[in-house]
Amino acid sequence: MPRSTIAHIELPAEQPTLIVAPWDDPIVDAIGYEVHSEYVELFWLNVLGPTSTWLLRRLAHGLERHPLGYELDLWETAKALGLAYSPGTASPFVRAMNRCVLFGVAQPIAGGLAVRRRVPPVSARQLMRMPNVLRVAHESWLRPVDVTDGALRARLLAEAMRRAGDEPDRIERQLLALGVQPHLAASHSATSHSPVEVRSQPDQ
């Protein structure tokens, strides 16, 4: 998704609080990783950076206590994280919040912010930007997938999403969320594939 299309959080001076609500995503919630998990600490930390990772965990912790959502005191939260806060987009606290939005672990909603309680696997593009030691470590987190069958299912799903108008980044994220191996998700989300010819198969 192009960065220019992502809404940023802008906080007016008269707004001392923000509503935090759960971001319900059945696919990611089913197969994703808890924000307090070792997976987030090892891999999403490299993507989000330490400040946004701590902010995400603080916001998700609030949702554990208030599952339907809650009102977040912006100044107190920033202070608790050791950050400066001022309305607008320039303060470290708001930049950390916007980084969560940029990388898809939170999204703006009317009057506040929806936050994931479980995050998807990192994308192949994000993984390739990590140090080699993290890329090697990530291999142990991949679920075994039958390559032949997995490749076919990934390609069919990718073509269906592409015909529906989804962008390659969104296609890759959805494939990863469904447990497709990162190299297959990256390959089948590319726009260079030709349409898939689906042949009828004899009944097994």
Describe this structure in words.
The protein is of the alpha+beta class. It contains ten helices and six strands. The protein has helices spanning 26-31, 38-48, 50-65, 74-80, 92-102, 124-128, 132-139, 147-163, 168-177, 182-189; strands at 17-22, 33-34, 70-73, 106-109, 112-115, 118-119. A four-stranded mixed sheet has the order 3-1-5-4. A two-stranded antiparallel ribbon has the order 2-6. The chain starts with 16 loop residues before the first strand and ends in a 15-residue tail after the last helix.
Can you give me a brief rundown of this structure?
The chain has 204 residues and is α+β, with helices and mostly antiparallel strands.
Distance between the termini: 40 Å
Structural class: alpha+beta
Strand order of the largest sheet: 3-1-5-4
Residues in helix, %: 40-55%
Uncertain stretches of 5 or more adjacent residues: 1-5, 192-204
Order of helices and strands: EHEHHEHHEEEHHHHH
Count the E strands: 6
Report the radius of gyration as a whole number of Å.
19 Å
> Biggest sheet, in brief?
4 strands, mixed
Bulk shape: globular
Whole-number average pLDDT?
79
Number of helix segments?
Answer: 10
Tell me what portion of residues adopts beta-strand conformation: 5-15%
Main attributes?
disordered C terminus, 204 residues, 6 strands, 49% helix, two-stranded antiparallel sheet, single chain, alpha+beta, 4-stranded mixed beta sheet
